[in-house]
Amino acid sequence: xxxxxxxxxxxxxxxxxxxxxxxxxxxxxxxxxxxxxxxxxxxxxxxxxxxxxxxxxxxxxxxxxxxxxxxxxxxxxxxxxxxxxxxxxxxxxxxxxxxxxxxxxxxxxxxxxxxxxxxxxxxxxxxxxxxxxxxxxxxxxxxxxxxxxxxxxxxxxxxxxxxxxxxxxxxxxxxxxxxxxxxxxxxxxxxxxxxxxxxxxxxxxxxxxxxxxxxxxxxxxxxxxxxxxxxxxxxxxxxxxxxxxxxxxxxxxxxxxxxxxxxxxxxxxx
Length: 270
Prior knowledge:
Blueprint: E1 3-9, H1 15-22, E2 28-30, H2 36-46, H3 59-73, E3 82-86, H4 94-100, E4 106-110, H5 113-126, H6 143-151, H7 156-169, E5 176-180, H8 181-186, H9 188-199, H10 216-221, H11 245-251, E6 268-269
Parallel strand pairs: 1-3, 1-4, 2-3, 4-5, 5-6
Helix pairs in contact: 2-3, 5-11
């Protein structure tokens, strides 16, 4: 089977931009979130003891079955030698993935949480006539209820944040690298060099002035036009927040990865 690695981490933190850059390399395949995580969860459930016939399923069979999902999903139509599969919940599945792919590497994209919440709110406001799938197409609410919904343990941001901490402090943390959004947009050459070094691939000359990614149809269906839009040129953009000051302050100290003393597993942070 071809090499497979994973992109995970926090939403609105550069995973789409990272995928768009990686796919410039003809040896690589990368994209926005795939359906594989849902398929893995479904198969784990079906092979659990809730299935009365699970006594006939060995762990070796479980591994082969789950690996088969990846092997067949990325079949002959994918010519790439190296696959990067994306889902912000992969961090919560790191022990399972290590059972399947002992040599895997996972790049977790991170960003100051205040700016993540700001970014989601900005998308919602830019599409005022389109209720968003992020909030189950609900038409009510305020910036406060939206921020709370994002941040709770089952929310778009809160779940990914907790999964990231689980991986960061877990026993498989040696497979994990954190890539800061701020580094990716301000120094993309440094960021990509670190990614290549981490996954053990030869360097590639990326074009940071001509980046392409098209998910317009998906975003429109989700009621969030522009959700996966990226600029043609990689560049940091200064802006003021659209959030009320108390919401912005609520999350401004949540970047745990910046605390070197708390990095007990020695996770690489770029």
